[in-house]
Amino acid sequence: MTTASFGSHNWGMVVDVDKCIGCQACVIACQAENNIPLNTQDRVERARTISWIRVERYWEGDFPDTKARFIPIMCQHCENAPCEPVCPVFATYHNAEGLNVQVYNRCVGTRYCANGCPYIVRFFNYWEPVWPESLRNHLNPDVTVRSRGIMEKCSFCVHRIRRATRTARSEGREIADGEIQTACTSACPTSALNFGNFNDPNSKVSKMREDQRHYTLLDQFGTDPNVIYLAKVDPDKKVSVGEAASHG
Amino acid sequence: MKLNRREFLALTGKTAAGAVIFAACGLPERELIVQSPVDLPEDLVRGEDAWYATTMGDFTTGDGVLVRVMQGRAKKIEGNPDHPVNRGKATARYDSVLQLLYHPDRIKEPMLRYSKAGNLVGVSWDQAESRFRNALAGSSGALTVVTNPLRGHLGSVAGRFAQKFNGKHMTFDPTEQGVLHCAVKSVLGQDQLPTFDIANARTVLSFGADWLGTWGSPAQFGVKYGEFRGGSRGYLIHAEPRMSLTSAAADLWLAPKPGTEGDLALGIASVIVNEGLVDGSNVQAFLSAVPGGLRNYDVRDVAVRTGVPFNRIQNAARHFADHTPSVAFGGGSAGAHTNGSFNLGAIYALNLLVGSVGSAGGVTPNPGSGIDGVPASATGASFQSWEEELAQWRAGNVETVIIRGADIVHGMPNTVAIREALEHVPNVIAFGAVIDDTLDVADLVLPELTFLESWGSDIPEPGPGYQVVGIQQPVVGPTVSQDESGLISDARGFGDILMKMADGTIGSTMEQMVRRAISDLHSSGRGSVSASTPALFTKGVLQRGGWWNTGTKGARGVTGRISNEATSANYSETASLGEGDDFHLVPFHSNSLLDGRLAASPWAQQSPDPISSASWSTWAEINSKEAEELGIKEGDVLLVRSTSGEIEALAYPHPGVRPGVIGVPIGQGHHAAGRWAEDRGANVLSILTNEKDSQTGALAWAATRVRVQRAGRRVKVPKFEGNVEARPVEPGFPVLVVGPNETAEAAKEANHHEYQKSLFNDDYGSVDHE
Predict the structure, then answer these.
(1) Which of residues 45-104 of A touch B (CB under 8 A)?
(2) Which one of A64, A241, B523, B656 counts the least CB within 10 Å of its CB?
(3) Strand runs (DSSP E) across B365-426, as ranges?
(4) Tens-place pLDDT, residues A70-79
């Protein structure tokens, strides 16, 4: 597992949990954009759904002091990704732009990568995907339809990155900050999800990750994710500074 | 350079070298799909796409969207960044509409029922139009056009068509908002819903309306909420008996007893006035709108009546008054009571108390329509009007009913016996893209174009504070079926058919009507698009998805008064309902299905409810502690019974519901709605009782009390919760929460110690933790 030497881009995301309202706009936008198979009732009941991005909801407290906390989780595109070295056929690898990438036609479905991922964001196709009849019309031709027996996961909408890169190259210019929006960031009504280039110190995401609320999920595992979270704010939280200081 | 297939394959086989060769020959790069060992094809980009701007018709309150089209097929719907309402953002519902466009059960051709007892059989458009004309011939003065609340040109066409045949245009919204419109009119003097300047407010106080989920314009409100939470971070207080998305986002959630929202608002006002938190002039303005004064709203009494703890009411009042600008608004279940008008009147009057009417961060008025004769505001006809109308149907006084966009069979309570009323109407003509419960009983079913295939317009409501006209244009043509046997639907536009049936007396086509309106906008010389010729202007308007004029703002209206009558709510009776426990039923819009209009879409069906994470079903939310006391467990099939009927729902206990309340999502329980929705779940609207708002006659759809009993069966709730093991930041702390000015590091550290303390109990302090 090596850290890639990046070029001009290191794509990443900043998730402002304080702005996430749990509305699921990102989830459906991702389903539509990435030709994700339908999560039928049977698959939901058997816990065999595929959702490249999910919004987890946690309860805190009892009525009337109940809080529902939401947090969107997608592939963290780790710099030190546990899923990469375990793949026997190099179907998952780290590219030069910070993406943890899945090459579908290499994958043989060992599922080692899913076992290794602490974020549980890799999904196995237990069945051949089926879109009844005319619904195939809305499939996105930019995104490969994955067959039964292989893994899939959030790609940071790599096809959008490729499209924008080609357009910028053909026009002889750099990709502008904000020019590339993944399907989820584009949909997110509150701008809780933000996508951009961490290699550009002036990009929106680079500035956002300087916020004192920034953290990464499960950082004790040293995965060095390219998804940065900004903590939820509770203005009425009693901050136990003394507690932290005395045991620090 | 000419190549045959063999030469092409040989060259591309050289991978990177092949790319160089072709590039040198000028072959476009995108035509090469070459797997290189150094530049792997993570995914492919094929062909060019086009993005067309349009507006979303029946599925939003006027959001502007961009539709991605490739090879003549719509692929994706996103927010239009140019559009002033939703500013490029979306909701979870946008893409689901694509599945109505390409639904395998789309109505393929007109269908006719030769007798009420017969089956629907396919007919040609000529036969269908002939039947339509015959129906109209004998219906002068005995015709009703039923639609969803329509703004824009379609609303105008429906109204004028009904008028031409001396008929009536009735609008239907199962969770009608007539009370809201009346409250806004009576308190703020506004004909249109005003703009809630959430982005610039420091405190937002909302009641009943799940504005971040399903109420009003969630995409618009979501954008504003994002801004509200940025910078100096505003404070959100929300009052609703169950936890909706808005309750979940709130810093302070108040969960009043259903129907006491007006009490709560005046209790808050009472604290503000008694503590002298605002200027005397504001108090005078408020009291002139609330002539009954605040004598009966001592905060301690209000706490008892509403069930909201005294200190919470006090905190809400102080925040609202001290951290201005503040804005108060309400709707949804807060207005759906027998005292709905009083509730909403009291809520909107709070804006007078903090001087936020017409000012930044408050409630700002919206102007009228930018196009003459085209409605800028619409709401459902009151339930009382509907009862009167259905009596006419039953009496045989209505010959023809034309229905579009309103599933009245699904949406009306059992009490009105809508199916039976329709049987008395000789000609029921219904339009739609996918079959629904109303189309299923119609005599003539006409396949309708979706908004992605037809012309139209919409005036967003609420607008952004200035004139906006959204233009709807066809972004795809007719779709050929996969087996190339014909079109997936030989559909036509509702407006176009009405105009044809009126022999051109109200216009020729929707396209022509919309183009003329654009031309008139050009002549006005105002607005967001400037062009030298009408043709260029039209092009500009279509490219941007509409026209807006920031120069024409709404004018502040004359402040009225709220009524002192019916200040407390009445509910339906449960005494005769047999065994079980009494609950207050609070129906709520499904986050993905809304009132059921998106039920046919599998994406909408599979979308997890944000609170319960359930999908594909109808569940009942009850307080977890109360459920424990009653022995109710998740997945228990509950019989939810009112005086109007009974439904089954799966129990989903959670701590975000007020005890005594049962929340059931609207949207399921269709007998006909395509393969994914048919006979799925239960229709909670059917068991509503016929309580009405005392002032407007609107259906008090949150005033039903029910008796709940276990059916003795338990099934697995189809939900996403638990499908993935929670991997929290620290066990017990799944989402990192910081206090004011606290860093994430400090919060994690504190969480860690708290967790360790919970493991070691009292021993924790005695060991070295370094």
Answers:
(1) 45, 47, 49, 51, 54-59, 61-64, 66-71, 93, 95, 99, 101-103
(2) B523
(3) 400-404
(4) 999 999 999 9
